[in-house]
């Protein structure tokens, strides 16, 4: 592998590890919110203290879903990299600008096709 390919592999692998850690933390948080809600019999919807348990649960669940989606994107990018297809637009087959990949390493389309 050349230096660029090695660097891409490293970036994707590091982002995958970070995302997996985020998923573990969010799962732990969500489990804690659900457990706390089950242990407390309060009128969560009318709590004058601020956000509701339902809101916290929904917010954390949405963050978890986004992280799981990100992990899947990174896994697909790693598979494309292993197959030698990384950096090719899935829509038109052209090259994806390296600047786009620097910002979004799991990008599957070039700027033109993304529009």
From TrEMBL:
<feature type="domain" description="Zinc finger DksA/TraR C4-type">
    <location>
        <begin position="84"/>
        <end position="115"/>
    </location>
</feature>
<dbReference type="InterPro" id="IPR000962">
    <property type="entry name" value="Znf_DskA_TraR"/>
</dbReference>
<keyword id="KW-0863">Zinc-finger</keyword>
<feature type="zinc finger region" description="dksA C4-type">
    <location>
        <begin position="89"/>
        <end position="113"/>
    </location>
</feature>
<keyword id="KW-0479">Metal-binding</keyword>
<protein>
    <submittedName>
        <fullName>Transcriptional regulator, TraR/DksA family</fullName>
    </submittedName>
</protein>
<dbReference type="InterPro" id="IPR020458">
    <property type="entry name" value="Znf_DskA_TraR_CS"/>
</dbReference>
<keyword id="KW-0862">Zinc</keyword>
<dbReference type="Pfam" id="PF01258">
    <property type="entry name" value="zf-dskA_traR"/>
</dbReference>
<dbReference type="GO" id="GO:0008270">
    <property type="term" value="F:zinc ion binding"/>
</dbReference>
């Amino acid at each position: 592998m050349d230096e660029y390919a090695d660097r891409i592999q490293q970036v994707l692998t590091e982002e995958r590890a970070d995302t997996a850690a985020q998923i573990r933390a969010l799962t732990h948080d969500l489990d804690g919110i659900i457990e706390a809600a089950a242990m407390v019999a309060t009128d969560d919807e009318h709590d004058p203290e601020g956000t509701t348990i339902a809101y916290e649960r929904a917010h954390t669940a949405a963050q978890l879903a986004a992280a799981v989606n990100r992990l899947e994107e990174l896994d697909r990018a790693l598979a494309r990299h292993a197959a030698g297809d990384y950096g090719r637009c899935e829509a038109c087959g052209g090259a994806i600008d390296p600047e786009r990949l620097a910002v979004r390493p799991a990008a599957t389309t070039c700027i033109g096709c993304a529009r």
